[in-house]
Amino acid sequence: MSSEVPSSSESRSTAVESVKSFIAGGVGGVSAVVVGHPFDLTKTRLQTAGPGVYNGTFDVVKKTLARDGVTGMYRGMVPPLLGVTPIFAVSFWAYDVSKSLILALTPQRNSTTLSTVELATAGFLSAIPTTLVTAPVERAKTQGQGNQANDRKYKGVVDVVRHLYREGGVRSIFRGTGATLTRDGPGSAAYFAAYEVTKKALTPAGSSPSELNLGAIIVAGGSAGIAMWALVIPADVLKSRIQSAPEGAYSGLLDCARKTIAADGVRALWKGFMPAMARVSLFLPYPLKLMSNVPLRPSLPMQQHS
Fold first, then answer.
1. What's the CA angle centered on 141, arms 256 and 35, to 5 degrees?
2. pLDDT tens-place string over residues 66-92
């Protein structure tokens, strides 16, 4: 293995690839939001509505369409539309850096291939910086999506942010950050590990995972999404409730869990599972397909074969 320092041309190439990665992630992310937002709105309304407001997933859709029309299914879409590019960029960058960190901390290893546990660890670590972007985006989105039981009309995303800031300053805008990390830490660990393992399983002998076709990427992305949401739905329910509730409704994550279970039972922690799964099958693989063909970083010196 070589320890050669990358040349200036290699550095320029890396910069170009990084820009391509950012653009690809942004395009894929925007497409994901447009296709997946109605499912996300349905999920959030199921999670935040009081007992008896909705009978299920289709009841949310029926009542939303009757009340607000088709455009009602896209309420609250602007915050994730604006935030998806930096979220994807930070997530993939942090995942890549985390993998590099793991390799750097284990110099005596026999292989540069990360184990499933190491991939999961890198995924968990990637959620830490990403949450700083995700949490305020989710907060604004959840407020914008509204609910029939607790519905404030906003004129747009600026009005949402202005209201939140007036309510409690920057702290209000970032409310639910801990809950977001509680969801996205384990979720990213499950997601990236399942994605990498599935890609490896689908890669023919002698081929590279980057050569997988769209069908294989869809299977890998769908499997990863299922693994993630099967694990994090309870945390997502609590996050949605904390971020949509009036000021002072909950003192924290545990208080939200206690009050949710007391009011609606343990089953309430799994509200929104079906629309989340439907959303996974439709959009999660596509940004990954765009990202999978773009190198996210140069090879570490220890990864270059002599």
1. 120
2. 998 999 999 999 999 999 888 888 898
Please report the sign of the dihedral spanned by the C-alpha atoms of residue 156, residue 160, residue 166, residue 170.
negative
Ramachandran angles phi, psi of 155, nearest 5°: -85, -15
Measured distance CA(236)–CA(88) in Å, rounded: 19
Candidates 84, 113, 108; CA nearest to 23 is 84
As a whole number of angstroms, the distance between CA 161 and CA 150 comes to 18
Helix, strand, or coil (residue 250) = coil
Please identify which residue in the block is written with the tokens 């894929």: 28
Q: To 10 degrees, what angle do helices 253-264 and 214-244 make?
A: 90
Q: Which pTM value belongs to this model? A: 0.82
CB burial string 174-190: b at 16+ within 10 A, e below: bbbbebbbbbbbbbbbb
In the chain the first and final C-alpha atoms are separated, in Å, by: 5
pLDDT in tens, 183-205: 999 999 999 999 999 999 999 98
Query: How many CA atoms, within 13 angstroms, populate the side-chain half-sphere of residue 164?
Result: 26
Phi, psi of 233 (to 5 degrees): -55, -45
Identify the residue whose tokens are 């074969």. Answer: 305
- Nearest Cα to Cα of residue 120 among 194, 64, 182, 217: 194
- What length is written for the chain? 306
Q: How far apart are CA 284 and CA 223, in angstroms?
A: 10
Q: How far is CA 56 from CA 19, 47, 62, 73, 81, in A?
A: 43, 11, 10, 16, 27
Distance CA 292, CA 209 (A): 8
